[in-house]
Amino acid sequence: MLIQTVVLVLTLLLAPVASSLPPGSYSKTLSLDEPGVEGTGTVSPDEAKKIITKQAETVLTALKHQDMNELQQYIHPEKGVRFSPYATVDVKHDLVFKAEQLPGLLQDKIVYTWGTYDGSGAPIQLTFPDYYKRFIYDRDYAQPEKIGYNELVRQGNSVINLRETYPYSIFVEYHFSRDADQNEMGWSSLRLVFQQHAEAWYLAGIVHDQWTI
Predict the structure, then answer these.
(1) By 3-state DSSP, what share of the chain in percent is helix, strand and coil, each rounded to 5?
(2) What radius of gyration do the chain's Cα atoms show?
(3) pLDDT at 62 (0 to 100)
(4) From CA 83, how far away is CA 98, in angstroms rounded?
(5) DSSP assignment, residue 72?
């Protein structure tokens, strides 16, 4: 009798939570690995692919077509989206924009400092449209040579701290090797990082990686 009473109470308590989930939310309980030393936790590549493929493709298409109105719907509602020009995410200096800021960025003429260039160490001072061309969609990542789900396709000599910066995240890497698309500048990758909020997955980071000195 006591067990039945407890079950009934728990059912009544949890019912409002389940009914409050946003439409179309991914409500499956994820099989996250136990956190490692850094306490990051991961989803297996196969599971990550099942969860995030559709979301990632929609985001990438919006980036390809510079559709900021579409993209803003997928931005993390609390954290916004962080832009990292190189593999090492710099939480102190990488710029973060909220969803509502995105639609105006392509017309924004403000010159922002996005970090420092590899090799010279000079500040990366660009408008958003110029940053977009150089450090977001510098190649046609919608037709990549390789795709990795929660696993790195290529790593250069930069420290990759994506897991530490975005714990319990899923990332998708779109990769080109050197000369894969007649580009002689070397290999490059675009990583889209998603984190959960209210049982749904949102874009929290856009990380550009490339051959560096």
Answers:
(1) 30, 25, 45
(2) 19
(3) 98
(4) 11
(5) G
Q: 152 CB contacts (<8 Å, ≥6 apart)?
A: 160, 173
Q: What is the pLDDT of residues 22-77, one digit of tens each?
A: 323 343 435 444 333 333 457 899 999 999 999 999 999 999 999 999 999 999 99
Question: CA distances (Å), 109 to each of 116, 134, 137, 154, 178, in order?
Answer: 20, 16, 19, 34, 32
Q: What average pLDDT does this structure show over 90-110?
A: 96
Rounded to whole angstroms, the Cα distance separating 130 from 107 reads: 11
Q: What's residue 79's pLDDT?
A: 98
Beta carbons within 10 angstroms of residue 41's beta carbon: 15
How far from the centroid of its chain's Cα atoms is residue 82's Cα? 8
The per-residue pLDDT for 203 is 98
Cα separation, 44 vs 137, in Å, equals 27
**Cα(126)–Cα(204) distance, rounded to whole angstroms?**
21
Question: For residue 150, what are its two tokens?
Answer: 């929660």
Name the CA dihedral angle for 181, 61, 59, 56, rounded to a multiple of 10 degrees: -60
